[in-house]
Amino acid sequence: MLEKVDLSKKIGKKEYKAELERKSEKLAWLQRQCKEAGIPIMIVFEGFGAAGKGTQINRLIQPMDPRGFVVHAGSKVTEEESSRPFLYRYWIKTPAKGRIAIFERSWYRSVLSDRFDGITREEDVDNAFHDIRSFEKQLTDDGTVIIKLFLYISKEEQKKRFEELEQSKETSWRVNKKDWKRNKEYDRYLRMNEEMLENTDDAYAPWTIIEATDKDYATIKIMSVIVDVLEEELGKKPDKESKRAASEGKANPGEEKEAAGEEKGKSAYQNQVLSGVDLSRDLTREEYKEKLDKLQKKLEKLHSELYLLRIPVVLAFEGWDAAGKGGTIKRLTSHLDPRGYAVHPTSSPNDIEKVHHYLWRFWNNMPKAGHIAIFDRTWYGRVMVERIEGFCTEEEWKRAYQEINEMEEHITNFGAIVLKFWLHIDKDEQERRFRERMETPAKQWKITDEDWRNRAKWDEYETAVDEMLLRTSTTYAPWTVVEANSKYYARIKVLETVVDAMEKKIEERKKK
């Protein structure tokens, strides 16, 4: 593949200056237009050492407004980052709408330099390719433009540049033993790069090979590619807005009625989960107190073992309003070391969160190795409240099932325990708890008008929850439906499920 690329391409100085002026003016204009249109952009620079990534990024940003972009240098992975899944450090750097993020090396290090150095095991390479494609697909489906540039030079040219860098005290630090090893084993590293290009060259995020022997030629080609992509994307914008408008209720009235009927009324052929749950399960107060004490003491011990073995844990709580999520979380955490866990209550996204991918805010709160993250409401809002209330398009919430499954798979591949709980109560029990809250001064803050409005859409939510449970309960991140009419029974079931999963994971880790 790469050996077919003609690396002798050059451009004359006069032509370069004229083209640079034209492209720079166009690029500055396009940056302003993309900001106005709210298009997030990611520009990725990969390629061989000494191919000129730093130089090309510096030339690229000269005509751009520095307030609208950020450059992320390919620095070493920090201890904080190494204690989380490898995509974490990139998810939290994804740009907001209208901004540009430029990456000097990127998430591809896992299948390039890390693979060459033996940090990424060969048996993990396929999973890494899968995670990368999933990451890029989720972002582009959400409207992010990803431009990937691969700077290519020959073995001889790389060697010459390394030698030139080493001759100067100011630049000698830029060449190390690993660089020379990759030059010495250039063909092996070349094959890894070709495999990476072949596995991740997708229509939604294609690669462009940049012939980088002549730096001026490379500059003009890079600018030309970026200008072309952004012009094309701006041209698509009206179509995207039309599709969104159609999905928000401006379609054919007959189609609206049909869609509404399907959403509100359960189809006789739809798979159902919640209707089969036995909500009569209960525990006496004595049984509850005895079991609770034993389980909390076990959790205290297991928490220490998780920390020592560097096992992260993600616990996700969803359920009907007043189903008892808060009380359950309180009992779950009462004996845990507060330095080793965090509870993240999820409310409506704020202005900063709204201009990012909907998963961005949850990635920011994923636990590092040995810690526990507990989410009171989660990323599943996408396929429940956002679906029902029309806060996202039908295309977006339907796409979310796969996006969520892939995120959870990536986290579990890192070694995390992921458990998800749906606390289920019936409609009569919810009404009883609502009225109790209204009549109890100390609990009135827990009940809002929105709770009553959501209750009016019970059947629609039940349809959405049934589909969510079926489509996102996986072997690696299962859902547990908790019979929660009895708070005692619900709390014990949750704690037992968490204890069992922790004990199993700890036993597996100790055997390795």
Task: Provide keyphrases for this structure.
512 residues, alpha/beta, Rossmann fold, 2 domains, five-stranded parallel β-sheet, 21 helices, elongated
Summarize the structure.
By secondary structure, the chain is α/β, with parallel strands linked by helices.
What does this structure look like?
With 512 residues, the protein is of the alpha/beta class. It has helices spanning 13-37, 53-61, 79-82, 88-91, 113-116, 125-141, 155-166, 177-184, 186-200, 215-250, 253-264, 285-309, 325-333, 351-354, 360-363, 385-389, 394-413, 427-439, 449-455, 458-472, 487-511, and strands at 41-47, 69-73, 100-104, 145-152, 207-211, 313-319, 341-345, 372-376, 417-424, 479-483. Helix 8 (177-184) packs across helix 9. It is elongated. The model is unreliable at 241-269 (pLDDT under 50).
Number of strands: 10
Computed structural class:
alpha/beta
Q: What's the CATH class label of the largest domain?
A: Alpha Beta
Give the proportion of residues in helices. Answer: 40-55%
Topology diagram in text:
Layout: H1 13-37, E1 41-47, H2 53-61, E2 69-73, H3 79-82, H4 88-91, E3 100-104, H5 113-116, H6 125-141, E4 145-152, H7 155-166, H8 177-184, H9 186-200, E5 207-211, H10 215-250, H11 253-264, H12 285-309, E6 313-319, H13 325-333, E7 341-345, H14 351-354, H15 360-363, E8 372-376, H16 385-389, H17 394-413, E9 417-424, H18 427-439, H19 449-455, H20 458-472, E10 479-483, H21 487-511
Parallel strand pairs: 1-3, 1-4, 2-3, 4-5, 6-8, 6-9, 7-8, 9-10
Helix pairs in contact: 1-10, 2-10, 6-17, 7-8, 8-9, 12-21, 13-21
